[in-house]
Amino acid sequence: MSASPTEEGLWDEQADDWAELQEAQCAPLFAAALAALGAGPGTTLLDVGCGSGVALRQAADRGAAVSGLDFSAGLIGLARRRVPEAAGLHVGGMDRLPFEDASFDAVTSFNALRYAGDPAATVAEFARVTRGGGAVCVGGWGEPPECETTGFLFAVVMALPELPQGSGADAPNTPEQIRGVMRGAGLEPAETAKVPCPFVYRDVEAAWRALGSTGLLRFAVDRLGEPAVRDLFDAHFRPAVLPDGTVRQENVFEYSIARTPA
């Protein structure tokens, strides 16, 4: 991802919580996209913004030869433990990938494109390292009305005096914005799908640790103080606590797949 050193460090602060509690909340999205791509033996796949490697683990378990890249050194360290057989796991920005042209059959990127300084140029970079006739798959949050958790995230954004990269109105956060960026890069999405990804936590404190590990929340705690951010969290999540103490929020994510010119 393209981000300032400060933002990179924010993702490192609670990397273990992200890897343990939050990243796998999108496992259904990863599974659906990898199935649509036909990832399996003989497939070479790069995941850009790979985090701690949950999607890479799924792809490797399907038999694909996998590589990954993320701007967080802490998350890449965890990905190396999660996917030790990966061909390469790199710390770096998504706008200048350290790979030769046509290196992969498929490039995936989930919940990461919004951090790009120039999203269309970044998607063009995804296409550059994809072989002719290969696939570029970009996934992320669904439309806000379909995602309960975005209510909390929007409240945090509204409270901030300044926004971190990836949280502004100009960042490609919605499915239509992402597809528009793909078209701007010369790729026409040929397949799109919605995937339910309910966020489920064992209790409200686990939910706080999970979402508190994100770059946005680390940024907000730094700017507003933890008590103020926790008040916003409690206002949104306390009503979502179920009788057994677990927390569940319904969210829908989407992916879009485009083929590179043969």
Please supply descriptive tags for the structure shown above.
9 strands, Methyltransf_11, SAM-dependent_MTases_sf, 262 residues, methyltransferase activity, Rossmann fold, globular, disordered N terminus, seven-stranded mixed β-sheet, methyltransferase, alpha/beta, Methyltransferase domain-containing protein
Distance between the termini: 27 Å
Nearest-integer average pLDDT = 94
Oligomer: single chain
Radius of gyration: 17 Å
Q: What name does CATH use for the topology?
A: Rossmann fold
CATH architecture: 3-Layer(aba) Sandwich
Biggest sheet details: 7 strands, mixed
* Class inferred from helices and paired strands: alpha/beta
The tally of structural domains comes to 1
- Low-pLDDT ranges: 1-6
Q: List how many beta strands DSSP finds.
A: 9
Our estimate of the beta-strand percent is 15-25%
Top-tier CATH class:
Alpha Beta
Q: Name the helicity range.
A: 40-55%
Fold blueprint:
Elements: H1 5-13, H2 15-22, H3 27-37, E1 44-48, H4 54-61, E2 65-70, H5 73-82, E3 88-91, E4 104-110, H6 119-128, E5 130-141, H7 150-159, H8 175-184, E6 189-196, E7 199-201, H9 204-212, H10 215-224, H11 226-237, E8 247-249, E9 252-259
Parallel strand pairs: 1-2, 1-4, 2-3, 4-5
Antiparallel strand pairs: 5-9, 6-9, 7-8
Helix pairs in contact: 1-10, 2-9, 3-4, 6-8, 7-10, 7-11, 10-11
Keywords: Methyltransferase, Transferase
Organism: Actinomadura graeca
Protein name: Methyltransferase domain-containing protein
Entry summary:
The longest helix is centred in the last third of the chain and has 12 residues. The N terminus is likely disordered. With 262 residues, this protein is α/β, with parallel strands linked by helices.
